[in-house]
Structure formats: C-alpha cells, structure tokens
Amino acid sequence: MTALTKPRMNVDEFLAWAADQPGRHELFRGEVYPISPETIGHAKVKGALYTALLAAVHKSGRPYYVLPDGATVRVDDATAYEPDALVYCGQELAAAAIEVPEPVIVVEVLSPWSRQIDLAVKLAGYFLLPSLAHYLIVDPTRSLILHHSRIGGAILTASSPKVQSSSTRPEWSLADVYGGSPMSRIPHPLMHGGHRAEKICENFTVRCGRR
Q: In 10 A of CB 73, how many CB atoms?
C-alpha cells in the first residue's frame, strides 16, 4: 500500500478530513493510506465473520456489541485503523459515533495487499490498546484463523482454528465463516475431526465488569 501525498495528520485531523473523502482510508504514523477495493470472496468472508460473531454474542446474553468494517480504532495519536469486524462491551455507543475507543476483539481478513501489515504492523498496534483481549487474523486462502490473545502480560498465538476458553463464553465455528464457500472443503491438518466450536471471548466478563 502506498501513502497518499498529503501533510502528516494526527487522528483528529484525519477523521475530519476523511469525512469528506470518497472511499475509505487508514492512518499510520501520520500518513494516510487508501483501503484497496475488495474481491467478492473477501467481502463474503467478512460478512460471514460479522454474522458469526453477532450470533455468538446474542447466544451469550452478555452486553457485547459487534460491528462490521467501517468503525475506526485509534491506536495512538497518529495511527487509526478500520478493522474488518470488532466487538466491544459496556455501554452501547451512539449511532453517530465514528470511533470505538475500547474494543475487546478486532478481526482482520488477509488480502494480498494487506497481509504483511495485518500480520505484523497491526498486531503490534492493536495490542497497544489496554482493552484488547483478542486479535483474530483470518486467512481465507487456507480456512485458517490465527488467534492472538492477551493472557496476563503476555500475547499468546494459536495457529489453529480451535481456540480454548471457558464454556460460558460466546462461541462460533469455522463452519460459520467458511461453510458456504469451496474453502470449507479444502483438507487442512488443523481441521481434522470436523468443524469445532471456537470460543473466542475469554476474559470478557472480567474486562467488561470493570467498566
């Protein structure tokens, strides 16, 4: 991705500028980057992720809120991203809000032009947020979810679709994400035993209860 030729901005300046611009953009270290157009397959995986997360949150009965892409997450004064989906908790944000200040889950779907950014730059950036418990990176070419989670002071990574957590937390499955696409039929060593429930909301009750 190539930065636009513009003066450096802070996040407040960027959001004011972006409100009047066509297309979508992100800000990294004060430089503006356009978000590339998506393939239909990429958009379908994003939609399935949002639907699966929404169903999991509804099933949990807890005060979590799910948003698709479009909401802004401010990482620091000069960096702001638009994840492909996110979950936050506590009080529901106003309909006119642009930012989600304290996400607990963010999700990015890999694409050829965003792969290295999502795997490295955004991984480091998102976990600067004290509220963040989970960062999920979805690889639509391999039916694989990389799950990065904050456990105490450490960031742990599971390169397996199966994510362990308490049975009282929201859950969803790879079948929910990939079930309608040819990718669900791709053999993968991490998918033996069929599609199993993902439990991705570990520590939600503790984190939300402190608000």
A: 24
